[in-house]
Design a protein that fits this description.
Elements lengths: L1 H18 L4 H7 L4 H4 L1 H24 L1 H20 L4 H15 L2 H12 L5 H30 L3 H4 L1 H15 L14 H24 L4 H23 L13 H21 L2 H9 L3 H29 L3 H20 L6 H16 L2 H10 L6 H37 L4 H13 L4 H29 L13
Length: 480
């Protein structure tokens, strides 16, 4: 019951980050705004959620994991109602930001509960089940979002969360009893929290908007400068604070650092490529949103099937070998997709290629999460449990920005190979992105998309190399 309760809340939070993507065209049309403004509805959710995860994790250690988890559910529910009845684009963006504040509490608390409730060899399979739901959630959001928007309009993607919360909230109140604060020293580190959140927010804002503003734009550079400056101040402050928000000694654990960084690169490869697939299928192939979701669905199905198996394999093969095997399979999946992706590819062939990728990535998440939290003391698990998901969100933002920029550069390069002058190539790309796709852009984009999946192998290779530093940890034990 505990696993079902926290995993359902966590899946709902992740699903909400993807279900809205399919609704963005309708939102832009309804509020008569441009698509780049409507994109903030999706971007602000990811930025705020990644920014506030460590804050909520520390709050759980101080004030009780159940209390913070329930707060997150209540905030998420209230803001879902607000977004449903949003009266303009500004109110919708503000509602999404506050909704993300609520969901930022769910992930670290869910991992803390599972780490405490499942000892030893039971922990890997439990984290595998939760990892399967987490991995499947983005695809489920895309599929369900397509059907909801088609049947009931874009507001339905927010309203659907309310009955789900109505079921999860009373379960949380009953099932999660007894999980109280373990850190005896009360007192929240406000300066540390402000330094970290402002720095992360500025950096993630630059990462997500850099490809639209331009990487040399003053706003992009200023955001990265604030990130570096505030993180330096944060480290100096935390090293001297009596009750730091994040105990810097946590980063001495090789298991925590290596597993989180490997997971970050794996997420960058996955989200950086798969966020582009709906554009490929709908704009180049001409698929409907529903068909697009069904083509991507094998990824979710493989996550649900393989992730629990990956959790069990952690007990036998180890927390290092299991994700490395998964990353090799994922690399084969990326390579296979790069070879078959085309506007005339059969549905069966692309689904098989996506399924291979899902098998590899499904074997990766649970072992890395198990390793990341294995050595962390119980009274620090709230804030430590925020780091895997925060790393994955940062990796996702980084991957989307990098692959988006790489795709644009490869389209330009392929148009140049066709003998199209640079100025004309830019005009063709702009016209094709906003209107009818020209034959030249169609051919260039098709080839460039194949290049993107080859490029993803660089990110997978980085994850594999870093995973060699993860301890094997064949049997997850409890730490005092």
């Amino acid at each position: 019951m505990l696993l079902a309760t926290v995993a359902s809340g966590l899946m709902m939070a992740i699903l909400s980050s993807s279900i809205v993507n399919i609704a963005l065209p309708g939102i832009a049309a309804d509020f008569q705004t441009n698509f780049s403004t409507a994109m903030w509805v999706a971007s602000i959710y990811m930025i705020v959620q990644a920014t506030f995860m460590p804050v909520m994790g520390r709050a759980g250690d101080l004030y009780g994991h159940r209390n913070v988890y329930v707060f997150g559910l209540l905030m998420f529910t209230a803001m879902s109602i607000l977004c449903t009845f949003a009266w303009n684009i500004e109110s919708l963006i503000a509602g999404r930001a506050l909704m993300a504040l609520g969901t930022s509490a769910l992930s670290p608390m869910a991992l803390s509960f599972v780490m405490d409730a499942f000892p030893g060899r039971e922990r890997g399979p439990a984290l595998g089940i939760m990892g399967g739901l987490m991995g499947a959630a983005p695809t489920v959001g895309t599929v369900s979002g397509g059907f909801l928007v088609g049947a009931f309009g874009w507001r339905s993607v927010f309203l659907v969360a309310v009955p789900l919360c109505a079921v999860i909230l009373p379960l949380a109140m009953v099932v999660l009893k007894g999980h109280e604060a373990r850190d005896g020293e009360r007192g929240f580190d406000v300066p540390g929290g402000l330094l970290l959140t402002v720095g992360l927010f500025a950096g993630l804002l630059s990462v997500s908007q850099g490809r639209f503003w331009g990487w040399t734009d003053q706003r992009t550079i200023a955001g990265f400068a604030v990130l570096v400056l505030f993180l330096v101040f944060f480290i100096v402050w935390e090293s001297r604070a009596r009750r730091p928000m994040i105990d810097l000694s946590l980063f001495r654990y090789r298991s925590l650092v290596s597993a989180n960084v490997a997971g970050m690169f794996a997420s960058a490869a996955m989200f950086g490529t798969f966020v582009l697939l709906p554009f490929f299928f709908q704009r180049l192939v001409g698929d409907s949103p529903q068909v697009t979701g069904l083509k991507i669905a094998p990824l979710a199905l493989m996550f649900l099937i393989i992730a629990p198996i990956g959790g069990r394999l952690t007990n036998t093969l180890g927390a290092r070998t299991t994700p490395q095997i998964g990353l090799v399979i994922a690399a084969a999946g990326f390579l296979l997709i790069s070879r078959v992706i085309a506007d005339d590819v059969s549905t069966l062939l692309i689904c098989v290629a996506i399924a291979v990728l899902g098998i590899g990535l499904g074997m990766t998440n649970a072992p890395l999460t198990t390793a990341a939290l294995h050595d962390v003391p119980r009274d620090k698990r709230g804030v430590a449990s925020s780091l895997p998901q925060m790393g994955r969100f940062i990796g996702s933002s980084f991957g989307i920005a990098v692959t988006g920029a790489f795709l644009s550069s490869r389209v330009a390069a392929r148009l140049a190979e066709m003998g199209v002058p640079a100025a004309e190539a830019s005009a063709i790309a702009t016209a094709s992105e906003n209107g009818t796709i020209s034959a030249q852009y169609h051919e260039a984009f098709n080839g460039a998309f194949q290049d993107v999946f080859v490029f993803a192998l660089v990110l997978v290779a980085a994850a594999f190399i870093i995973a060699t530093l993860v301890p094997q940890l064949r049997e997850a034990g409890d730490k005092p």
